[in-house]
């Protein structure tokens, strides 16, 4: 670590680490605004969705199913299943920030972007000397720029709608963003096995109605990852 990096406060380090992800978050949010408009949501509904949920993947899943005319129960259950990763993120971060006051943890849960988790999961082990307050300041720094960016680009996408040209290829933003976050974390065989299973399962089950193949792929990935980890631990 450079002397300049050591001189930064935890909050400033969080801002620094979170800023690069905005390059992927911006087109991701634009695309959601467009998708929400095409699914029949007005500007207010689209903004309320983004402000109330702040979870890109599950928001896309929900509006896609709504556009397909899926039953409300399917929309809710599938969106919740996609968002279950947030529970895993929370469990992973609990040892680091679990001692923070309840209201701070509630705010952290609200702004828990995938990118914020990716930053925190790598920064916290590098700084065992940080207090809980320092870790929360880092978290706030990583999340701070992302929240207004997400809301702003959702608004732009909702207003512009289908006028955004197709050659911009905004649909590539989501996979690129997730690859940038997931790839550095694939350090062990169980993690790689789970990732490969989830990708293969999602592709092979893409034909399943209402995107329910994603749920099956996620369950298979968790089962494979757990089994590989069990066998790996015994080896």
Protein architecture, described:
This protein is mostly helical and 235 residues long. The protein has 2 domains: 3-185, no CATH class; 186-235. 75% of the residues lie in helices and 0% in strands. Helix 4 (43-53) runs antiparallel to helix 11 and helix 7 (85-97) packs parallel to helix 9 (114-126). The longest helix has 23 residues, at 212-234. The radius of gyration is 19 Å and the shape is globular. The protein starts with a helix and ends with a helix. 30% of the residues are buried. The model has no long low-confidence stretch (mean pLDDT 81).
The number of domains is 2
Q: Provide the gyration radius in Å.
A: 19 Å
* Overall 3D shape: globular
Structural class: mainly alpha
Number of helices in the DSSP assignment: 14
DSSP strand tally: 0
Low-confidence stretches: none
Calculate the terminal CA-CA distance, rounded to whole Å: 35 Å
Percent range of helical residues: over 70%
The major beta sheet can be summarized as: none
Order of helices and strands: HHHHHHHHHHHHHH
How confident is the prediction overall: mean pLDDT? 81
Strand content: under 5%
Protein name: AzlC family ABC transporter permease
Keywords: Cell membrane, Membrane, Transmembrane, Transmembrane helix, Transport
Main location: membrane
Family: Belongs to the AzlC family.
